[in-house]
Design brief:
The chain is built from nine helices and 17 strands. The protein is an alpha+beta fold.
């Protein structure tokens, strides 16, 4: 419910409620989508200004027309009567670009750009060998094909994107998006390694858990029953000697999280995009140290989106 209160509305002798709507719209366009929406609840004049195209055009990326022109369904598939309707659509409905190898959307809170790289656009070792991987279609995926892991011991996936495609002065994180089949093995007692950074440069790595049950055991330090009494005691003693603090453990590992679209995601790392920076950002997920066989993951892609904090 809008609350119209004119108490203390004068600034330097000017009553903001007497300002032209265009002036108020210009002020709102200098805020962010979330603040503009909140201010629209204060008074009817703010509400009217907050609906204007002048405000929402500033919240859209400067190159949004070019991005829409690359839609796999054609630019005419994304047409709306107002810029606010277009903004909200781009937030809620990612659309495919570049022949269906990427999807584009906006983060609703800030209007920053988000991309997902389809599994087909990733470099997956052995992906062209039917014995190890196969390409399937799933109704729940935004892409025409996803990659199903059949059986590999060398698990190595890499994606790349140029930072010029992303929003400047923004901290981004990359997320591996996947799901699991009923029969999944090889990740239950083995973590993987995620890394994000500039291609050709050293990248900081993170411990990544892909099996939800293994992640739960790691978080709560649960020892599997089948290890045997002596091994359990040895593991307990080893953990007590080398136990990291809770904050250190959280910083060292990333755990899978359920997404609202039904898929699972796990963070691979983060990167701050500087204004004017044009470098190739590389994201990877690997497990090549143990050499055990792995199976049962279905890969949708890698999502790059702004990260708070």
């Amino acid at each position: 419910m809008a609350v119209e209160s004119r108490n203390s509305s004068a600034v330097n002798g000017v009553d903001i409620y007497h300002l032209p709507e265009g002036c108020i719209a210009n002020i709102l366009s200098l805020t962010c989508p979330r603040d503009a929406s909140r201010l629209s609840l204060v008074a009817s004049i703010f509400r009217s200004a907050a609906e204007s195209d002048a405000v929402w055009d500033r919240f859209l990326p400067p190159d949004y027309r070019d991005i829409i022109s690359r839609s796999s369904d054609g630019p005419d598939s994304i047409m709306f009567g107002s810029k606010k309707e277009l903004y909200l659509y781009l937030c809620d409905y990612p659309f495919l670009i570049e022949g269906g190898t990427k999807s584009f959307s906006l983060e609703k809170r800030s209007g920053k750009k988000c991309y997902m790289l389809a599994a087909k656009s990733l470099a997956i070792v052995w992906a062209d060998t039917p014995r190890y991987w196969r390409w399937i279609s799933l109704l729940e995926s935004r892409f025409s094909e996803v990659a199903e892991l059949l059986d590999v011991c060398w698990f190595d996936i890499t994606g790349k994107i140029n930072t010029s495609m992303l929003s400047p002065d923004t901290k981004y994180a990359a997320y591996f998006v996947f799901t699991t089949k009923s029969r999944t093995y090889g990740f239950d007692h083995q973590s993987a390694e995620g890394a994000v950074g500039i291609s050709g440069h050293e990248r900081k790595s993170l411990t990544v858990f892909l099996d939800p049950e293994a992640a739960r055991r790691h978080m709560y330090q649960i020892v599997p029953r089948r290890l045997g009494l002596l091994n359990q005691m040895a593991n307990i003693l080893r953990r007590e000697v080398n136990r990291p603090s809770e904050n250190e453990a959280q910083a060292q590992a990333r755990y899978p999280q359920q997404r609202s679209d039904g898929w699972i995601e796990v963070e691979l790392g983060e990167f701050f995009v500087k204004r004017g920076q044009e470098v190739e950002l590389e994201m990877s997920l690997t497990e090549i140290k143990e050499g055990n066989w792995k199976s049962g993951l279905v890969v949708e892609g890698i999502e790059i989106r702004p990260k708070e904090g």
